Amino acid sequence: MLLRSCVFVFGLFLTTTSSAQLEIQVTRGIDNPTSIAIAPFAWDGLGSAPTDFAQIVDSDLARSGQFSPVSRRDMLSLPAAREEIFYRDWRAISTRYLVIGRVSQGTQLRIDFSLHDVERGVELFSGQVVSAESEARMAAHRVADSIYEKLTGIPGAFATRLIYVSVTRNPDGKDFYRLTVADADGRRPIVLLEGRDPILAPSWSPDGKEVAYVSFESSRPAIYRQVLATGEREQLTNFQGLNNSPVWSPDGKSMALVLSKDGSPDIYLLDLETKQFQRLTRHYGIDTEPTWMPDGQSLLFTSDRGGRPQIYRYELVTGKVERVTFEGRYNARARVAEDGRNVALVHQRKGRFHIAVFDLVTERLTVLTETSLDESPSIAPNGSLVIYATKRGERSVLGAVAVDGGVKFSLPARSGSVQEPAWSPMLVEQ
What we know:
By secondary structure, this protein is mainly β. The protein has 2 domains: 3-23 and 160-423, Neuraminidase; 31-152, Rossmann fold (3-Layer(aba) Sandwich), CATH 3.40.50.10070. It has helices at 7-10, 53-63, 87-91, 136-152, and strands spanning 3-4, 25-28, 34-38, 42-44, 67-69, 97-105, 109-117, 122-131, 161-169, 175-183, 190-195, 199-204, 210-215, 222-227, 232-237, 243-248, 254-259, 266-271, 277-279, 287-292, 298-303, 310-315, 321-323, 331-336, 342-349, 352-359, 365-367, 375-379, 385-392, 395-402, 408-411, 417-423. A hairpin with a 5-residue loop joins strand 18 (266-271) and strand 19 (277-279). Helix 2 crosses helix 4 (136-152).
């Protein structure tokens, strides 16, 4: 049964709050990033443009750490059409690439843009993005995705979203929790659920239209699914004991989760249509934190059945369980990249908890972070970045690091702490 979030208990549904907004702080990029200029996009429409499209593209590419955008105050000209480009102007300020664009207003917004090689004096690529005016920022992110893919060969993930839990301390000394969804740059935060009860383990449906999470609003942990567009939600579990770690299958038809209703915490499979549960693991140890392999044929999960938390694989067809990680005394909270090869996880080394990447083919583990209390990794849908929660003083903030360790940035909230991040899949254009 679908239920509406209770306004009285949880506050306003789909409200925005400045305290929930994240702010990007790039802390490390690659050596010698590529110089690129994003000239201001021309506006063909009534009044002023709904947003600064070029600035959004500029910020996205800067956040990748691989590009060094040219400041507007250093630009010698501001072309918006091919015939207005004078390549000598851009060579004079050592620009490698140039992006120009024009935004037209009609029943929908249309962005026409092109990428130019300044050194060679040629156009490399032109494209078009069409969107509703209400999605102007997301349209600009899609332009950035196209530019990024053309120059790196990797699909961009700027036009994606994040979900996370923010925690603030009220004057009465009690914590207040908000489940928030925002664009990947932290802008346009929308509060899905808020209250004094903890919220844990948010995850995305494969189509990016729903989220699942754990809420303690009924005095014990229960798993919910919620439709982003309408706010409708459904309680999926409320068993005695542990109800945790819901993750959608790649086909969206089922959900892996953790229940302790039959004894020790084990991994279960919930058919979302029939609402039937299937117990997958049966062990006296603790089996938790499932995550799907991209082919939907197996799961990774955390278990202490070997004495210490390590990553194991469960094969759905055969029921076979095998240990995956062996390096170190602690490996947990695995999240698999779309390529099915790289696995982000929490790794303990010398008493400190770091984010690491484990290669399932070579079985090589690479530690990516230097901070000491890192948790809850989530991989961008293009496999390039891992977002995670970490400590900065007394506050929890979100950090992001490239899978090769070359780029790092943080996303602190304006106030309070931020934890439990989850990166959306690639979103289908509306």
